[in-house]
């Protein structure tokens, strides 16, 4: 795509819209976040490309992708955005940090463990907006789809900084009168360590219920479908469930907090990181569930 350069002033609003589109990856998501129409977002992008005389994004069937020039402009726009946020913080220190932080993680950790423990963070920073995404997709920190991620695996490569938050224990749970059948993951999640453990130690039992949702498996166990292999922090203490002995070695997984190198010192991101570390440290025994000692 060839864009004719226009000699005119650079409009910060055009950059702001471009930056949100780069983060969101789609016109509709950026429009929702900015509370603008699709047409306005598209028009702002076109105006910025005309001003700079270069193509910043390619439109593909699955969304917008940055060109090489777009990556360079995004990096500069991110820096400008952080400075703008710093100016806003100087104006409103009494209200605490401002802006938004996007965190992606598993649904069980979010709904059962983390979200109920976010009250102190909110009380200390009432102007800080937090977005938690529990989509099954692995969102990219490098593409700014999220600021932080909690994942059940250590990062192997890339410009990510990782910190181990906790060890998660797993156990077998069933209703007292449940049949000797299994509750398991569906085929889309067959490679998960917990799914592989259940295949290896399930003793050839019939699978009476499958789901790609851990919460769905928990509900099926309460309903009496059979025995489920669940995170201890999710199933311990649930009325109508009892913990069964493990037929094999215990399984544990590690929860890691990941952040891109160039985001870890952003004040609002740092505040969320510190709160997450404190919450997971305080809850480490519940998260482990005694599975390590079995």
UniProtKB/TrEMBL annotation:
PROSITE patterns in UniProt: HTH_LYSR
UniProt-listed SUPFAM superfamilies: Periplasmic binding protein-like II (SSF53850), Winged helix' DNA-binding domain (SSF46785)
Keyword line: DNA-binding, Transcription, Transcription regulation
GO MF annotation terms: DNA binding; DNA-binding transcription factor activity
Signal sequence region: none
InterPro entries membership: LTTR, LysR_HTH_N, LysR_subst-bd, WH-like_DNA-bd_sf, WH_DNA-bd_sf
Domain of life per record: Bacteria
Domain HTH lysR-type: 10-67
PANTHER family attached to this UniProt entry: TRANSCRIPTIONAL REGULATOR, TRANSCRIPTIONAL REGULATORY PROTEIN
Similarity field: Belongs to the LysR transcriptional regulatory family.
Name of the protein: DNA-binding transcriptional regulator, LysR family
Organism taxonomic ancestry: Bacteria, Pseudomonadati, Pseudomonadota, Alphaproteobacteria, Rhodospirillales
């Amino acid at each position: 795509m060839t864009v004719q350069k226009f000699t005119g002033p650079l409009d910060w609003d055009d950059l702001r819209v471009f930056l949100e589109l780069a983060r969101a990856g789609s016109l509709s998501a950026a429009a929702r976040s900015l509370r603008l129409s699709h047409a306005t977002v598209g028009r702002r992008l076109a105006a910025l490309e005309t001003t700079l005389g270069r193509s910043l994004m390619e439109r593909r069937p699955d969304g917008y992708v940055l060109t090489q020039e777009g990556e360079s402009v995004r990096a500069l726009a991110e820096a400008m955005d952080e400075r703008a946020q710093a100016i806003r913080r100087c104006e409103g220190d009494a209200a605490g940090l401002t802006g938004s932080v996007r965190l992606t993680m598993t649904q069980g950790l979010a709904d059962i463990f983390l979200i109920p423990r976010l009250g102190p963070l909110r009380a200390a920073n009432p102007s800080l907006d937090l977005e938690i995404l529990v989509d099954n997709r692995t969102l990219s920190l490098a593409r700014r789809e999220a600021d932080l991620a909690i994942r059940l695996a250590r990062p192997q490569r890339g410009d990510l900084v990782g910190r181990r938050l906790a060890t998660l224990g797993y156990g077998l749970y069933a209703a007292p009168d449940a049949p000797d059948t299994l509750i398991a993951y569906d085929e889309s999640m067959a490679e998960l360590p917990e799914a592989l453990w259940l295949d290896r130690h399930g003793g050839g039992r019939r699978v009476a219920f499958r789901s790609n949702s851990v919460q769905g498996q928990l509900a099926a166990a309460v309903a009496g479908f059979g025995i489920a292999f669940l995170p201890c922090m999710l199933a311990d203490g649930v009325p109508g469930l009892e913990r069964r002995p493990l037929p094999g070695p215990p399984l544990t997984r590690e929860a890691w907090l990941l952040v891109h190198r160039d985001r870890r010192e952003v004040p609002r991101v740092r505040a969320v990181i510190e709160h997450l570390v404190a919450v997971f440290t305080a809850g480490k025994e519940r998260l482990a569930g005694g599975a390590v000692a079995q």
